[in-house]
Amino acid sequence: MAETQIQDPIVRVRQVSKSYGGDQSSAAVAALTDINLDVMKGEFLALSGPSGSGKTTLLNLIGALDTPTMGTVMIENRVLGQMNKSDLSMLRRNRIGFVFQAYNLIPIMTALENAEFTLALQRRPKHERIALAMQALKQVGLGEMASRLPRELSGGQQQRVAIARAIAPQPAIILADEPTANLDSKSAVSLLDIMQDLNSRLGVTFIFSTHDPRVIERARRIVPMVDGRIVG
């Protein structure tokens, strides 16, 4: 009988704490305290909780955008704290896609050029960049709007371009920080449909930070956070 292989978590967080400040005039403020979390490949997971609960801070640590005060964060069995700046930058470009609440599109670039942006940082050939970016735009239903500038798109369409930019390099993980916060209900539902399809069809791991019940009800696992701690 063949042995069953046990898959390692794609994200592993161990005894992580994060504090800000702390000097002679003020005490340090704890944003996260003793966080332990495993995320398996292909999960559709929501970090849920009110503002100030530590969701975005934890997402930033997982995305190597910040460093913990204590503890260890691992992505695909690589300890982030043991990697130099160049390797961390390469990890973010190649293995992690980011979707931000504020879209963060470049206003003078078309939808296609925005979707190409990370691929350009990877120094992929131009023809490959265009092909992957167009494929991503089609996946989010914007293939016919590739030549439009962000100001010519609705908020929901701009967030779709942000998703296209995130998925074009075919990352292992997508981190989405309150991705539906600025969207109306119809746009939010459409966006979540796209993300669920990408998750189920391509096996991309999604980790959200959110307090939006529309996201929480779609998540296959909910990690509740309060005051910088995982509860329950």
Characterize this entry briefly.
The chain is an alpha/beta fold and 232 residues long.
What does this structure look like?
The protein is α/β, with parallel strands linked by helices and 232 residues long. 34% of the residues lie in helices and 25% in strands. It contains seven helices and ten strands. It has helices spanning 55-62, 85-95, 111-121, 126-139, 155-167, 185-202, 213-216, and strands at residues 11-20, 29-39, 44-48, 70-75, 78-79, 96-99, 173-177, 205-210, 221-226, 229-230.
Overview features:
single chain, 232 residues, alpha/beta, six-stranded mixed beta sheet, globular
Q: How do the strands and helices of this protein lay out in sequence?
A:
Layout: E1 11-20, E2 29-39, E3 44-48, H1 55-62, E4 70-75, E5 78-79, H2 85-95, E6 96-99, H3 111-121, H4 126-139, H5 155-167, E7 173-177, H6 185-202, E8 205-210, H7 213-216, E9 221-226, E10 229-230
Parallel strand pairs: 3-8, 3-9, 6-7, 7-8
Antiparallel strand pairs: 1-2, 1-4, 4-5, 9-10
Percent of residues in beta strands = 15-25%
Number of helices: 7
* Helix share bin: 25-40%
Class by alpha and beta content: alpha/beta
Coarse morphology:
globular
Characterize the biggest β-sheet.
6 strands, mixed
Oligomer: single chain
Low-confidence stretches: none
What's the SSE pattern? EEEHEEHEHHHEHEHEE
Main-sheet strand order equals: 6-7-8-3-9-10
- Measured on Cα atoms, how large is the radius of gyration? 18 Å
Alpha-carbon distance between the termini?
Answer: 38 Å
- Whole-number mean pLDDT: 91
Number of beta strands: 10
